[in-house]
Amino acid sequence: MSSDTKSSSPTETVLKTENASVYYGNFRALQGISLDIPKQQITALIGPSGCGKSTLLRCYNRLNDLVKGFRVEGKISYHGQDLYAPEIDPVELRRRIGMVFQKPNPFPKSIYDNIAFGPRLVGYKGDMDDLVERSLKQSALWDEVKDKLKQNGAALSGGQQQRLCIARAIAVQPDVILMDEPCSALDPISTLRIEDLLQELKQHYTIIIVTHNMQQASRVSDMTAFFNVEMTEKGGRVGHLVEYSETQRIFQSPTEKSTQEYVSGRFG
Amino acid sequence: MSAATGNPSSAISQRSATSKTLDTGFILLTRIFAAGVGILLLWIAIIVGIQAIPAIQTFGLGFITSSTWNPVKDIYGAWPHVYGTLVSASIALLLALPVGVGVALFLSEDFLPARIQNILVFVLELLAAIPSVVYGFWGIVVLIPTMRYVGGLLNRTLGWLPLFALPPGQTEVTGPGMHVAGVVLAIMILPIIAAISRDALISVAPELRQAALGLGATRWETILKIMLPAASSGIVGGTMLALGRALGETMAVTMVIGNAKAASTSVLLPASTIASLLANEFAEADGLQLSSLMYTALILFGLTLLVNVLAEVIVRRFRQI
Ligand SMILES: Nc1ncnc2c1ncn2[C@@H]1O[C@H](COP(=O)(O)OP(=O)(O)OP(=O)(O)O)[C@@H](O)[C@H]1O
Ligand SMILES: [Mg+2]
C-alpha cells in the first residue's frame, strides 16, 4: 500500500484519516485506512463493489452511528478535531458535512420546503426565499423549477431530483459535501450537468465523491483514492486503500498493478 | 428459447392456448367475486332501507333530531342514540389516537432490542383479536369501579364544565356511563390505530430518514417532520378504520354504557348508542318500532360510510405531503 501524499497544492487538510479500521459487529469492512482530504478539492473514491467506499464516506458524517455494532478504530479528524470524540455532537457535525445519496431522495414535500428543511432546523433567520433561490441556482436547477416551487419535489425527473438533493445539501451551507454515486441513477446529460456543477461547487466546498464511473472520476476529481478488497487469513473480505494520489497520476501512471488494471477496466 | 422451435409464432399460440383460457377464467372469477362484494353491500342496504320505509314516511328527517323514544305511544326519534354514538366514538378517538401513534412510534424506532420489539408487536396484534364481549366483561369488572373513581375526580375538579357535571342531588358517579363506554372503545381501537400506524411508519423509505439525519436533524426532528408526515396517509387510514369500528361496536358498549333513553351533555351519565339500542330492543320489536330501529341502523350505516369515504379522501390528499 502506498499513500502518495506529494502535496503539490499547499491546501490544508479538512478530513484526516489515520490508520482507521471500520467494523460492523464482528465484520471488518475496512482496515488501516490513511487518507487526507484536501480543502476545496474534489476527491474521488473508486474501487470494486463492497470494498467499503460508502462505509468510509458515512464515517465522515457519522451516519453509520445508526447501524448497530458499527465501530471505528484509529482516528478520523475534521479540521484537527477527533470526529469520534465523545464531545462531538453528530447532529451538529452533519450540519457541517452534508451528504448526497446514490438514489435521489427528496422529501415528499414541495421543492421549496425540501430546500428550506435544513435551514429551518437551525432556525435560519435570513431571507428564506432568497436562500432557496440561491441554492437552486447553485445547483443549476433554478431555471427549470422557478415557476413551480410549490410542486412536490418527488414529481421531478430523476436528474432534477438529484440536483434538488444537492441544493438541499448546500442550503445549510456545509463545509464538506459527501456524494455517494450521485449520478448512478441518471442519464448521461443529467450526469454531465452534475459534473459541471461539481466544478462550480468546488469553489466553495470540499467534495468527496464515490463513483463507479472511471471517466467521471478522471473528469471531475483532483485526487483519487483506489480501494480494493483483499482476503484475510480467515477467509473474510476486508477493504483497504491501495493507492491515493492526484487523479492524473492514478489514471496515467499508477504505482500499483491492481490500480492500473482497475482504471483501465481490466479488473478481474 | 425460440431456437428450439423453427417457427416461433406457432410456439407462441401453442403456449397461450391453455394459459389464455386460464387467464380469462381467472379474470372472470375475480370479477364475479369483486362484484359479489358490491352486490352484498347493496343488498344489505336495500333490505334495511325497505324495512325502514314506514318509519321514514312517518317521521321523515326529523327522526334524527327528535329525542322521544316511546314504544307505548309509538313515537320514535333517534337523537339520543345518534348523539351517544358520536360522542362515545369521539371520546375513544381522542384517547386512542395520541396513545396509538405514540405506541406505533415506539415500536417502529429502534428503542428496544429487536426481539422484545417483535414480542410487543405480536402482543399488540393479539389485542386487536380479543372478542368484544371479553372487553365488555372486563369493562364491567375492572373499568366501571375505576371510572367511578376517575369520574368522581373529574366531577370534583372540572364539574363546572357541563361535560363533567352531575344532575342536582347526585354527588356520586354511578357505575356505567358514556365515559366507561368511551374508555372501553378507546382500548378496543388502540391496537388497530397502533398496528396500522406502525406499518405505515416502518414502510417509510429509509432513504428519507437518512436524508433528514444527513441534514443535521435530530431523531425527534426526523420523526416529527419527516417520518410522521410521510406516514400520515397510513395513520389517517388506520384512524378512520378504528373510528368505523368505534361507531359500530355493539357488545362491549351495550354492557357498559348504561342504556339511558335520553341524551345528556355530561359524559359521566348513562347514555346509549345506535348499536346498543339495536341490541337492546331488536328482539322484542315489531311494527313501527322495528321499522324505526331499521331507520337508526340506516343512519349508522350512513355514518360509517361517511367516515370511510372521508378516510379515502384524506388518505389521497395526504399521500403527497
Ligand atoms: N449496515 C451494514 N451492516 C453490516 N455490514 C455492512 C453494512 N453496510 C455495509 N456493510 C458491509 O461492508 C462492506 C462494504 O460495504 P460498502 O457499502 O461500504 O461498499 P461499497 O464500496 O460502497 O460498495 P458499492 O460500490 O457496491 O456501493 C460490504 O461487505 C458490506 O456487506
Ligand atoms: Mg456504496
Description:
- The complex is a heterodimer of chains A (268) and B (321).
- Chain A is an alpha/beta fold and 268 residues long.
- Chain A has helices at 53-60, 90-96, 111-121, 128-138, 142-145, 158-171, 188-201, 214-220, 247-252, 257-263; strands at residues 2-3, 13-24, 27-38, 42-46, 70-78, 81-82, 97-100, 176-180, 206-210, 223-231, 237-246.
- Chain A has a single domain (2-104, 176-263), classed as Rossmann fold, CATH 3.40.50.
- Chain A is built from ten helices and eleven strands.
- In chain A, helix 3 (111-121) runs parallel beside helix 6 and helix 4 (128-138) packs across helix 6 (158-171).
- The radius of gyration of chain A is 19 Å and the shape is globular.
- Chain A starts with a strand and ends in a 5-residue tail after the last helix.
- Chain B is mainly alpha-helical and 321 residues long.
- Chain B has helices spanning 8-59, 62-65, 79-108, 114-127, 132-158, 178-202, 206-214, 219-248, 251-256, 274-281, 287-318; strands at 69-70, 75-76.
- Chain B has one domain: MetI-like fold (Orthogonal Bundle).
- Chain B contains eleven helices and two strands.
- Mean pLDDT of chain B is 88; it is low at 1-5.
- Chains A and B meet through helix 2, helix 3 and helix 6 of A and helix 7 and helix 8 of B.
- Residues 53-54, 180, 210 of chain A line the site of magnesium ion.
SSE diagram, text form:
The complex is a heterodimer of chains A (268) and B (321).
Chain A: E1 2-3, E2 13-24, E3 27-38, E4 42-46, H1 53-60, E5 70-78, E6 81-82, H2 90-96, E7 97-100, H3 111-121, H4 128-138, H5 142-145, H6 158-171, E8 176-180, H7 188-201, E9 206-210, H8 214-220, E10 223-231, E11 237-246, H9 247-252, H10 257-263
Parallel strand pairs in A: 1-11, 4-9, 4-10, 7-8, 8-9
Antiparallel strand pairs in A: 2-3, 2-5, 5-6, 10-11
Chain B: H1 8-59, H2 62-65, E1 69-70, E2 75-76, H3 79-108, H4 114-127, H5 132-158, H6 178-202, H7 206-214, H8 219-248, H9 251-256, H10 274-281, H11 287-318
Antiparallel strand pairs in B: 1-2
Helix pairs in contact in B: 1-11, 3-6, 3-8, 3-10, 4-6, 5-6, 6-8, 7-8, 8-11, 10-11
The complex binds adenosine-5'-triphosphate and magnesium ion (MG).
